Fold this sequence. Notes:
globular; putative 2-phosphosulfolactate phosphatase
Amino acid sequence: MSSIEVCLTHQQLNNYHHKDKNVVVIDVLRATSTINTILFSGAKSVKPIESIEECMKLKGDGYIVMAERMGKKVEGFDFGNSPSKIKRELFEDRNVGIATSNGTKAILKTKGSKITLISSFLNLSTVIEYLNTNKRDTLLVCSGWKGSTNLEDTMCAGAIIAGLENYEYKSDTVIIAKKLYDESKNNILSSMKKSSHAKRLSGYDNIKDIEFCSEIDKQEILPYLDDDQIVLL
Length: 233
Ligand code: MLT
């Protein structure tokens, strides 16, 4: 029977094997929600980048460049990391480079997996369906915030686990994530508003982002990491 594990922050990835596994990266507020929305809006690709310096270099190649640090847009970039600001007329048929505090770093660390999927609440059921029809050992990677576990990523991992069929729970973090989701599933938004990052973001007038990222199954897409860029499966 295939197994399911949850890694609660990308800094803990060294404790897990991810080679040849299904890997799902989650950063609900906001990197994976943003990446999903960019591709849902018709962009050709999204390149996750480690540093803001590297990301800015892509501008010369015609990329839209996006960067966030401490929840805010980095000066000089076209956009920060706000999914509610993504508009089809701006992103359709474009290539995008993005560097965020945790989410893009988490994605880059999963190279060597069988497949790395990009998940948020927005494409929850599409990810669950993939995992139930392509059964193999699976690792859910919560990005977290600067080494700390966060509520929204763990809750989203629990939502994925709740939809899986015939997977063996391989770590206590699976039980923790599932219990957190079971407690919150009837009102994801109000639970998310209690999170430290939601409080950090609300200070920068990002209430719209928190509401946007709490919506379930608005985007039936399956973004995955194809070499060094994220495209739709
Ligand atoms: C992250 O990468 O940690 C988040 O996406 C940060 C944010 O967008 O506020």
